[in-house]
Please model this.
Amino acid sequence: MIFKALFQQLLTKPVTNCFPAKYMPKSVVGFLAKVEKGEAKLTPPVPVTEGFRGRIAYDREKCIGCQLCIRVCPARVIEFKPEEKKIRMYVARCTYCAQCVDVCPVGALSRSQDFLLADYDRFSPDLIVE
Amino acid sequence: MKEVRLEPEEMSEKKLEKTCPTCFEVPIGPIHPALKEGIRFTFWVEGEKIKKVDIRPGFMHRGIEFMGTKRNLVQLIYLAERICGICSVSHPLALVQAVEEAAGIEVPPRAQYIRVIIGELERIHSHLLWAGVAAHELGFDTLLHYVWKVREPVLDLLEDITGNRIDYAIPIYGGVRRDIPPEKYPKLKDALRYYRSLVDDFVNFFLRDPSIEARTRDVGILTREEADVLCAVGPTARASGLRKDVRQDWPYFTYPDLEVKALTPEDMGLEVRGDVYDRIVVRLLEVVQSIQIIERCLEEMPEGEITSVPKVAALLAQLKKAEGEGIGRHEAPRGEVIHYIRLEADKEAPVVWKVKAPTYSNFMPWFPMFEDQEIADIPIVAASIDPCICCMERVYLVRGEREEVVWKEELLRLSREKTKRVASRLARHAPWGRKG
Model:
């Protein structure tokens, strides 16, 4: 029977991490603005693991403009800038497979730990890596 | 062997009207709260009993095979991964097998072990997910929350190994993309020990619970003969007593060394009845089996390379030259998945890519399962094969010349035609129109 297990549940700590706040704020945007001002405290998200595939980080200096990443990207995230021989990534399209990281011959791309990337504008500066 | 008829003659629609004038037609779907995905069931019911069922798929077609022929093979892996969110390693595993066969790429043993480990971890999380859904369909939401809570550790483990909870992006042609370093073995073993300790609880909560037994025993029966004739696969077939498993019948990766056997309720000392209860039994047995397989893999895994073609650019060049066709099959949590691929030289994209998801085979067994069931049993019987409609949809059927969707213009045209037809008939029968 399940009753014993359920009573045990009552006494244990909940597994859910109450992110961003213990009680749901009336407006999440308003709450985040308050956090920025220092009026409220954010419950941090569950930390990600070491090898987590988050937003791709780009080292502009190392990039040699070989365009291999553009060839393997399944979501066509990456755009080539011919005049500078560098790339621009639209993170809103990214599927976070990190195949571009594997293919890059000079190690200009790497996986970062960023995952809180929700935005109202898909072309916002947070979502464009160049 | 007993003859199995899909549509007994006395059940055909016209005869049904004659023999069963009290039958009502109950449509469920394409969009319905009892269903997770779009599919339409039409039930002919007499009172509470289902007399006949008709099923129409085709609402969730995404044209994924067509999209695949517009991408190169490395991009294709990530598209294949997104055929199904729950079996998100099964489809790429079948695909890489097909391409490796077509292009003649060898896979190092360590990579094969890692593929098996990820595949079996996925089986554990998929079966737990199904157990939660089944509990929810029975109206036992407490159990749903409990099961999904204990499913979290395996997802965390997958995130730790591969970098994401689902869509692991781990297989690549010729091996895997990430190694499992020996530092992570203790974590894996801890998680397996945790699931081993839960098995007794699961048997108590699911199999010894009187209300679950009452709702699932002798509900949605699929006999052994029906399962065989209708080509059921996966746990659905095994719950009917059919010892059928790709890992046993056509072993691949390192499964031949692991001596995997297809499990049926007999392995738990139960009589096979082929009902929903048996499907729960088989899935619980398979969770235990997966734990054993992973434990053995961790012990036997050799050192060495994880891929035979480490440079992706070289891999792309090799695949571009490759010519031929290949078939890859993998035992996904829901059953057998088959990928067929045809490659031509100097073409980066595959010429043909064909995917068969397990639900496609488990679709026909729904017909005998639904027969003589009650309306209230529809959700649990439908969920008992663990359907994945989106993965299955390969075509959208347009019957004859006419499209299925009738737009305003078409409707107007039909209406005008009918007026014309009726008017001409009226004119023929009207006294002033009669000649002679």
Notes: Chain A has a mean pLDDT of 90.
